[in-house]
Write a structure and sequence with these properties.
Number of strands: 58
Number of helices: 3
Distance between the termini: 81 Å
Shape: globular
Helix content: under 10%
Radius of gyration: 28 Å
Strand content: over 45%
Low-confidence stretches: 11-42, 50-115, 316-323
Largest sheet: 5 strands, antiparallel
Structural class: mainly beta
Strand order of the largest sheet: 1-14-13-12-11
């Protein structure tokens, strides 16, 4: 009996050894297969150019004298850089942390006190800068974000992550392609993570795992120790101990910081919360937030704000260099185009040579320009300025003259009458003063962003919808029940169709009977104010973060054009078959016919 028991035990041990060996081999094989699946060699088209520091970096892309690179230099732990209002001469750590390139990246190499390279991204590559040379890395497809850990990791072509282990960065590997667009990447417990449109993807050393979010519009990840925060248009989510929970409902979170004791959150519209209490608020749009100990820095479209000991102040003793967001192009005389900037100033662009020169330096907050009868009418955040054709100021129209508000978003000559859209309503210039209407007279909302004349009616786009006018009499209006996102930023027409661009709801077309939303890809499409142009049967719209949306009115189909210095397109104008594209990064010119010929058929 003992003999049989011994034989049985020996057999089980042998079977266990065989099973273990086979299982081990299967596991090793599975790991090897998974690793091959996760990371593979990819051919990435990278072109490297070294150019002098002072020169423009993109052919056919122009920047004026306020260009971001004109002010970039390295000096010990100091840096000068522009892009939406960056501190001149502040510490590298703070500036680079505050520099939030929406569709690109930033970074640096070297120690805090001895920076040898600075990386600045743009949609189709990145720039590596030292004190004298710019190396410009052009990629064949879009690079939307890069982070540098042990290697350089970049989102490539929208739905891939590539990694390079060399410098210069010319050899890349690719992580397995995902079916959805990747919004953000980061590192968590030695794993690369990628945020897609519906998932949080963890790339381990030899495996990949996916956490479903059930949130289509998540766009950013923030990593603090063992905690991941994920922000969307409406909520903040928290991932900790392999459990995903809803942290809180919070619309338009733009930045987040967790010190282990409390959570600080900045919203797009200038409110900063600490846990569930409002800490402070500024009247500006926030790009990013940096928290250092008990101090908070807000990078905004109006400069940098500083919070400490319960008080908020604008940073002084620093030269805040604004970016050059272009708001308008206007044809001028002698082959010149006027270029207006939101931060102030008007330049001239020679369409033959591409040369840009300052024209009017003193005017600030330019929103619109009209050149008529040898006069320049300039809508600004402080009234309407009238100039002679040689740039000499003749007068200023403001509230004393009957304007409902000094902040003028749009001006338009309709049947030889100047109409002005303001924060208080719409005003028409009669003689030397204005006659106005506002909500009390039936206007759908006082805050006017755009004006357009179509089929004998004036269409006024406001913060609350669209009003149709005969001169200054409101005939009918449309609000959220007709247009799901009634913040109207652009109105114009192609043929017999009226097009209405919204901030957050995409584009609607009106055929005289009803408004119908265009079927763009994605739901949250932000059309920038007055960034509309038509060409033949095409309607073109400048978006906040998706480049140019081009809609074919005959085929009822639309596409995005993204080969631009930045995907924040703020103005458009077709002149002599060239499309002039204004952005927050300078401007570009492209042959509109070639672009349209290259669009997909369907």
């Amino acid at each position: 009996m003992k003999k049989y028991i011994f034989i049985l035990i020996s057999f089980l041990i042998l079977a266990g050894i065989i099973f273990y060996t086979e299982t081990r081999d299967e596991i090793r094989g599975a790991i090897k297969e998974a690793k091959t699946e996760v990371e593979k060699r990819v051919s990435v088209d990278v072109k490297v150019e070294s150019i002098p520091f002072e020169k423009h970096i993109v052919s056919n892309h122009y920047t004026n004298t306020k260009s971001h690179l004109d002010y970039l230099s390295v000096d010990s732990d100091k840096i000068w850089i522009t892009k939406g209002g960056i501190i001149k001469g502040d510490t590298v750590n703070r500036v680079l942390n505050a520099t939030d390139f929406k569709t690109t990246t930033k970074g640096y190499s070297g120690s805090k006190d001895n920076i040898d390279k600075i990386f600045i991204g743009y949609p189709f590559g990145f720039i590596m800068v030292n004190s004298s040379i710019i190396q410009y890395y052009k990629f064949g497809k879009e690079i939307s974000k890069c982070i540098q850990e042990d290697k350089l990791y970049c989102i490539y072509d929208g739905n891939k992550v590539i990694v390079s282990d060399q410098s210069p960065y010319t050899k890349f590997y690719e992580f397995k392609e995902e079916s959805q667009k990747i919004k953000d990447i980061g590192f968590y417990q030695n794993e690369l993570i990628a945020l897609s449109e519906g998932s949080l993807i963890f790339y381990g050393v030899d495996k990949k795992r996916v956490v479903k979010l059930n949130e289509e519009f998540a766009d950013r990840v923030y990593i603090f120790g063992n905690t991941i925060y994920i922000t969307s248009d409406t909520h903040i989510y928290k991932y900790e101990n392999k459990i995903l929970t809803t942290f809180k409902e919070f619309p338009a979170a733009i930045s987040l910081y967790d010190n282990g004791k409390s959570t600080t959150i900045a919203s797009l519209h200038g409110t900063v919360w600490k846990d569930d209490q409002i800490l402070f608020k500024v009247d500006a749009l926030v790009n990013n937030m940096v928290v250092e100990n008990d101090s908070i820095y807000l990078l905004t479209n109006k400069g940098v704000y500083y919070y400490q000991n319960g008080e908020v102040s604008e940073l002084e003793n620093h030269n805040i260099i604004q970016g050059d967001m272009i708001t308008v192009f206007t044809p001028f005389h002698n082959n010149l185009i006027l270029v207006g900037y939101f931060e102030g100033g008007i330049d001239t662009l020679d369409i033959n040579s591409g040369k840009v020169e300052p024209f009017i330096k003193t005017v600030g907050g330019v929103n619109d320009i009209i050149y008529k009868d040898d006069k320049l009418y300039v809508a600004t955040t402080n009234g309407i300025y009238l100039y002679s054709s040689n740039g000499i100021q003749e007068r200023v129209y403001n509230q004393k003259d009957g304007l409902l508000g000094n902040s003028v978003s749009k001006i338009e000559f309709i049947e030889n009458t100047l109409f002005a859209g303001t924060e208080g309503g719409i005003s028409a210039l009669q003689g030397d003063s204005f006659t106005s209407i506002y909500a009390l007279h039936g206007l759908i909302n006082n805050r006017v962003y755009t004006i357009s004349y179509f089929n004998g009616y004036i269409y006024v786009g406001t913060l609350g919808g669209v009003s149709e006018l005969r001169y200054l009499t409101v005939k009918q209006s449309w609000s959220h029940k007709d247009i799901s996102t009634p913040w109207i930023t652009s109105i114009s027409h192609v043929g017999n169709l009226l097009f209405v661009g919204t901030y957050g709801g995409g584009v609607f077309k009106y055929d005289g009977k009803e408004f119908k939303k265009l079927s763009e890809k994605g739901k949250k499409i932000y059309i920038n104010p007055n960034s509309f142009e038509n060409y033949k049967e095409y309607a073109l719209f400048g978006t906040l973060a998706k480049g140019i949306y081009i809609y074919n009115t005959k085929k009822d189909s639309g596409f995005y054009y993204e080969e631009l210095p930045t995907l924040n397109v703020t103005s458009l104008k077709v002149i002599n078959k060239n499309l002039y594209i204004g952005t927050d990064f300078g401007f570009a010119t492209i042959d509109i016919e070639k672009v349209l010929a290259g669009l997909p058929e369907n």
